[in-house]
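Let us practice reading a record.
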Amino acid sequence: MSWLHRLKSLVADPPPEIVFEVSARGIAWARTRDPRPELAPLEPGVVEVSPLEANIRRPEAFAAAVRAVAGDGEGRARRRAALILPDYCARVAILDFDSFPAAPEEQQQLVRFRVKRVVPFDIENAVVACWPQPRHDGSKRVDVVTAIVNMDVASHYEAPFRSAGLHCGFVTISALAALALPPEEDLSSANPRVFVKLSGDALAVSLIDGASLRLYRCVQVGAEALEEATSVLATTLAYAEDELGARVQALEVCGLGPGERGWMDVWRREFGVPVCGVRSRLGAPGPHNAGLHGYLESLEAA
């Protein structure tokens, strides 16, 4: 099974009782048994996504929203949960190493040393997670997917869930969880391909080569979102040709909003490749719940 569907392997068996995805729009959530995804809206300004500072701008309102969907936790044993954070609150990089140690402590030391000059916050005050991806070209080099979140950012997201009696034993970001979503069309022979996800003003672009994540970018887009996104895609496709020696064969898109079909038509003409959406057995993934749907799909694929 590919790395894209191995999110399940990071969660102890049985899976957590409940899954949450936080965005500026609201808290998407579902139970893992008989899942029925729902969205609890948040008022504007309660959550403002940033990699640098606390994202929960109105803690009391956010805590109240968490209690409304999770309960207050009083009189109950602590429940296990998965928490999916907004894309732009984290930094994700794919680092290459000649070799990579097996011991988690040594992995952390190496990764922290490599990223400390490129993250916009103190690496000593950060949560760092890494997933080695051995290459399949005969090389002994290892590509390591590394996610870094400012500790202050992560702790403010997690604290209300702990207060509600939940233990968030698995934490990821939406774009990585959404990679488990299958395309609406059969793209089994399309390699490499690019997954494009938009949530609010955060555009996340992932380059997938076989079972490996080879490039990840998350940028903010403004009023000219389509033009900016097209530029990001053009550089991603050029990177694939230069680094992988292969032309991208397809684009998968998610969360582009009411104008999604128009964006897809533009990219078909611009790049000359198939462009399709993604699907979920539980409904249509959107900009505020794609990670939730992807996580639930990964459990179903277990």
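A brief commentary: Residues 190 and 249 are 5 Å apart (CA to CA).
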